[in-house]
Amino acid sequence: MAAGDSLRSPGSTQGFRKRRSSRPRIGLALAGGGPLGAIYEVGALLALAESLEGLDLTNLDAYVGVSSGGFVAAGLANGISPAQMYRLFIAEDRGAAFSPALFLRPAFGEFSRRALSLPRLLAASAFDFLSHPFRPGALSSFATLGRAVPTGLFDQHAILSFLTRLFATGDRTNDFRQLRHKLFLVATNLDTGASVTFGEPGFDHVPIDRAIAASAALPGLFPPVEIDGEQYVDGALNKTLHASVALDQGIDLLLCVNPLVPFDATAASRRRRLTVEKLDHGGLPLVLAQTFRAIIHSRMKVGMEKYRRQYPHADILLFEPDREDADMFFANIFSYTHRVRLCGMAYHNTRSRLLAERDAFERLLAKHGIGLNIDRLSEPHRAIEAALTDPRALFLERLSVKSTAKALERTLDALTSCVLSRPVG
Question: What is this structure's pTM?
Answer without folding.
Answer: 0.80
